[in-house]
Design goal:
Elements lengths: L6 E6 L6 E5 L4 E6 L4 E7 L8 E2 L5 E5 L5 E6 L4 E7 L8 E3 L5 E6 L4 E6 L6 E6 L4 E9 L2 E8 L4 E6 L5 E7 L4 E6 L5 E6 L4 E6 L4 E7 L33 E6 L9 E8 L4 E8 L6 E7 L9 E8 L6 E7 L2 H4 L13 E6 L7 E7 L19
Antiparallel strand pairs: 1-2, 2-3, 3-4, 5-6, 6-7, 7-8, 9-10, 10-11, 11-12, 13-14, 14-15, 15-16, 17-18, 18-19, 19-20, 21-22, 21-28, 22-23, 23-26, 24-25, 24-27, 27-28
């Protein structure tokens, strides 16, 4: 069913009678009848609605924006926006509502902040936390140790754990791996699961010990996940799964500041197969807010770098961070397989300010791409949107 440009997240109302989908490329939420499979209403919101969740009693829906510094509160009976709450910055990708229906936590990816809002009129902001660059998603967890918020911070490659209450406090910082993004808790509150976007993996975290207990290889660049209790009543849950083949043969790299230069820039890079071409994604931090940068493919790691090819340009956000992408034939020259007898000449990545030839970050190491399973592997299917 077509509902508009760039749908982002969709959730059922607590009674299961409606499916609400935010249409991020437009300015509305699509309300869908899940039985008849047709759109029944559109709720006009601020431009770029990013996600929607409901108060447990179903009375209100909460819709942050990814393009406008505004979170809208919608009355689910009248489909009218009853409050427009200012966000600290425009780009909110994610929110979570507490089980007791008292508070909403939402993240701000562009400014590196997390905000907490009351779920009751007048829906005031209760607290604003500086959570860190590339603050991605948040999950609220209730367990025997208390009530907590788990926030993924991609620029620091950690989960930050806050004890919820009138004055939220940081109680743990959990290293995860490259670019933690989507996060969701288990039904009993003893685990959270986190997608590592630039590592093609999911980590499982014990929430009573606040440590990673497993790293699970998955498909390309996971951005969101959901945990469904008792989803597999019988069997191992592996039915209908199959290997992802060439699509799983990714390369992973890191960039660090040149020695002695005084720069603070760091980046992680994932290079994934899209069939005939490859997708490169870089997550950079430690940049100067508002400044433009270029990612280059070079012949040498050190100046004067040799032949340079510009891959992408990006502007650092308010937290001095940004994510950029490029498409091309990149995996084999950046992360050649160890076993390849005739591996291509390796190339390198560097970041420079726009219009400058001075690097602020250079490639310092890479994880080799897994060798092909046969001399001429079949290309992977083109990646689909999700």
């Amino acid at each position: 069913m077509y509902i508009g440009r760039s749908p982002h997240e969709a959730f059922f109302t607590p009674d299961g009678k409606e499916l609400w989908a935010t249409v991020r490329g437009e300015n509305y939420v699509s309300v869908i009848d899940p039985v008849r499979m047709r759109e029944k209403h559109r709720v006009t919101t601020a431009n770029g609605p990013g996600m929607v969740l409901f108060r447990p009693d179903g009375k209100y829906a909460f819709v942050p924006s990814s393009f406008t510094p505004e979170l809208d509160v919608v009355d689910t009976e009248t489909y009218r926006v009853v409050a427009r709450v200012p966000q600290a910055s425009p780009f909110s990708p994610n929110l979570a509502v507490s089980r007791d229906g008292s508070e909403v936590w939402f993240t701000l990816k562009d400014s590196g902040k997390t905000q907490i809002m009351s779920t009751r009129p007048p829906f005031r902001i209760l607290s604003t936390i500086d959570s860190g660059p590339i603050t991605n998603h948040v999950a609220l967890v209730d367990n025997s140790a208390g009530k907590f918020a788990y926030v993924t911070v991609g620029g620091e490659n950690v989960i930050k754990v806050y004890r919820r209450g009138s004055s939220p406090s940081l109680v743990a910082t959990i290293p995860t791996g490259d670019l933690p993004h989507g996060i969701w808790g288990s039904g009993d509150g003893t685990r959270v699961y986190v997608g590592l976007e630039n590592q093609d993996a999911v980590v499982a975290v014990d929430t009573l010990k606040n440590k990673v207990i497993a790293t699970i290889p998955v498909g390309q660049q996971p951005q969101q996940l959901l945990y469904v209790p008792r989803a597999v009543p019988r069997g191992s849950g592996n039915a209908n799964l199959q290997p992802i083949g060439v699509a799983g043969k990714a390369g992973h790299l890191t960039l660090s500041p040149p020695k002695g230069g005084g720069e603070r820039a760091h980046a992680t890079v994932s290079v994934n197969a899209l069939g005939a071409l490859d997708l490169l994604q870089i997550a950079a931090t430690g940049l100067k807010p508002g400044k433009n940068y270029t990612l280059w493919l070079t012949e040498r790691r050190t100046a004067p770098f040799g032949l340079k090819q510009a891959l992408t340009m990006f502007t650092a956000n308010a937290a001095g961070a940004q994510i950029g992408q490029a498409v091309g034939l990149l995996r084999e020259v950046l992360t050649p397989p160890k076993s390849a007898a005739s591996a291509p000449d390796q190339r390198y990545l560097i970041i420079t300010p726009a219009g400058s030839s001075t690097a602020v970050a250079v490639q310092d190491r890479f994880q080799p791409m897994p060798p092909p399973e046969s001399p001429s592997p079949e290309p992977a299917p083109a990646a689909g949107g999700s």
